[in-house]
Write a structure and sequence with these properties.
435 residues; TIM Barrel; 8-stranded parallel beta barrel; alpha/beta; 3-stranded mixed beta sheet; 43% helix
C-alpha cells in the first residue's frame, strides 16, 4: 500500500484558547479537489485522511457531515482508498480535552455514526499516534490540557486508548471486515552513560504502553506499577485485556529522525538523530506484537541542496525492503504528508506561520523533488512487490468494488468470524448506554 496523508491535526494551545487546524493552515478546505488531483498524479491509491472532528462532531448525537460528504464522495468516485483518521491530536471544544472521562464513549459514538454513514470505508486509524497525543498533551504540557504530570499522562493515555478500542468495536458492528491500521510513533531511548541506563530502560518500557493496552497485552511489571500508582484502576486495566482486537489490526508505525533519543543521568532527553534506524526499531515492535507492519509516516525537510528529502525517501524505502527480506510481513509505506506543513518545526505548539518544506507538494501544489522521486518509486515497485509475496495479501475492498458480490461475501465471512471471537461485538454496550 503506497500511501500519503492529508493531516487533520487539531490540537489546542494557549490553555485551550487557540485551535491549531492544519487543514486550514495548509489550504485544504479550499483546495481539496487539487489535493486529490495531486494524490492521483503521484500514482497513490491509499490516502490517510479524515474529517476534522471539531467541525464535524457538534455534540452528543449531533453532526455536520457536509464537508465529509463531499470529500468522501469524491474519494469514492476516484477509487482512492482512504485510511480514515478520526481523531488527530485534539477534540471538539465541548468535550474539553483528554482528561474528560466521557471522551471514550463519546468518541465511540462518533466512530459509529461515521461508519454507518460511510459503509464503503474499510480502513481506519481511529486515534492517531495515541502515545504521542497523550504525552504531548499531559506530560510535556504542549497541547490540549497542557499538563506536566505522570498522573495526567496516564489519565490521558487510558482515555485515548479506551476510545480507540471502543471505536474499533463500534466500527466492526457496521463493517465486519474493517481493518485497523494503528499509526503510532516508534521510539527508542539511548543511555548516554551507565548512570542513565535505568532511566532509559523505563522510557523504553513506557513507549510500548499505548500499543500494549490497545492490543490487550500485559504490560511489564514496572509499567503496571506505574499505571496503578498514577490513577489507572484494575478494572480499567482489565478492560484492555478483555477487549483484544489485535486480530483486526495492522501495526502502523511512524519514524522520523527525531524518534530516537539520548537519555542523560538527570533524566533529561534530547533527540539523538538516526542511530538504529527504522529497521531495527521496527523489529523490536514486531517481535513484541507479531502483526503485519505498515510504515505509516516519515518525511524530511527539503534543504538548501534540494535532494535531502529524496535521500531520506530512498533510505526509508531501503529499510522497508530490508524488513520484507528478513521475513517480517510488511504491507505498506507512507510519505507524510501530501503537502508542506505549517509550524511542524515547533510540533504545532506555536503559531509562527512557518512553512516546513516536507511535503510531496508545496503549498502552491507544485510538486517537489521528493514527489517526483516517490512517483518513480511507486511506478518501479508497484508490480514487483505483489509478485514476490503472494502469500501476504491484505483483503482490501476498493470503493468501486464495495457493492460487488465478492465484497459482500467477504464481509459476511468476517461477520461469521466475529461471532466466534471471545468478544461478542453485538453485545457490547452502545455509547448511548454507557455514557
Amino acid at each position: 500500500m503506497f500511501a500519503t496523508g492529508i493531516e487533520n491535526s487539531i490540537p489546542t494551545i494557549n490553555n485551550g484558547k487557540t485551535r491549531v487546524d492544519e487543514m486550514e493552515s495548509c489550504g485544504h478546505y479550499q483546495r481539496w479537489r487539487e489535493d486529490f488531483d495531486c494524490v492521483q498524479d503521484i500514482g497513490i491509491n491509499y490516502l490517510r485522511y479524515g474529517p476534522p472532528i471539531h467541525k464535524t462532531y457538534l455534540g452528543p448525537g449531533k453532526y455536520d457531515w457536509e464537508f465529509a460528504d463531499i470529500t468522501f464522495a469524491e474519494l469514492k468516485r476516484r477509487d482512492i482508498i482512504p485510511i480514515v483518521d478520526l481523531c488527530h491530536f485534539g477534540v471538539p471544544d465541548w468535550i474539553g480535552n483528554f482528561q474528560n472521562p466521557d471522551f471514550p464513549h463519546l468518541f465511540a459514538q462518533y466512530a459509529a455514526a461515521f461508519a454507518e454513514r460511510f459503509p464503503w470505508v474499510q480502513l481506519y486509524t481511529p486515534v492517531n499516534e495515541m502515545f504521542i497525543c497523550a504525552i504531548f498533551s499531559a506530560k510535556y504540557g504542549w497541547w490540549n490540557e497542557q499538563m506536566k504530570t505522570d498522573r495526567g499522562f496516564v489519565t490521558a493515555l487510558k482515555h485515548i486508548v479506551r476510545a480507540n478500542v471502543l471505536a474499533m468495536l463500534e466500527i466492526l458492528k457496521h463493517r465486519a471486515d474493517a481493518i485497523f491500521i494503528q499509526s503510532e510513533s516508534s521510539e527508542y531511548f539511548h543511555a548516554d552513560s551507565p548512570a542513565a541506563i535505568h532511566q532509559a530502560e523505563v522510557l523504553n518500557s513506557r513507549r510500548f504502553l499505548s500499543l500494549d493496552l490497545n492490543y490487550g497485552r500485559r504490560v511489564d511489571s514496572e509499567m503496571y506499577e506505574y499505571l496503578m500508582e498514577n490513577g489507572m484502576t484494575k478494572d480499567e486495566y482489565h478492560f484492555f485485556l478483555h477487549n483484544r482486537l489485535k486480530q483486526h489490526c495492522i501495526l502502523g508505525n511512524d519514524y522520523y529522525r527525531t524518534n530516537e533519543h539520548r537519555v542523560f543521568e538527570n533524566g533529561h532527553t534530547t533527540a539523538s538523530g538516526e542511530v538504529f534506524g527504522y529497521t531495527e526499531i521496527t523489529r523490536q515492535y514486531y517481535n513484541r506484537y507479531r502483526l503485519p507492519i505498515m510504515h505509516t509516516e516519515t518525511n524530511l525537510v527539503e534543504g538548501p541542496v534540494g535532494d535531502e528529502a529524496v535521500h531520506w525517501l530512498w533510505k526509508e524505502w531501503a529499510n522497508v525492503l530490508r524488513l520484507r527480506n528478513v521475513g517480517i510481513p510488511t504491507v505498506g509505506f507512507t510519505w507524510y504528508s501530501l503537502t508542506d506543513q505549517v509550524d511542524w518545526d515547533t510540533a504545532l505548539r506555536e503559531q509562527n506561520g512557518n512553512v516546513n518544506a516536507l511535503g510531496l507538494y508545496d503549498l502552491d501544489r507544485n510538486i517537489r523533488n521528493v514527489g517526483r522521486a516517490y512517483k518513480r518509486l511507486i511506478r518501479d515497485w508497484r508490480e514487483v512487490l505483489p509478485a514476490s509475496s503472494l502469500c501476504l495479501v491484505v483483503p482490501i475492498v476498493p470503493p468501486s468494488h464495495y457493492d460487488m458480490a465478492h465484497a459482500r461475501e467477504q464481509e459476511e465471512q468476517a461477520r461469521r468470524r466475529l461471532q466466534t471471537e471471545e468478544i461478542d461485538i453485538g453485545q457490547t454496550n452502545s455509547p448511548q448506554e454507557t455514557t
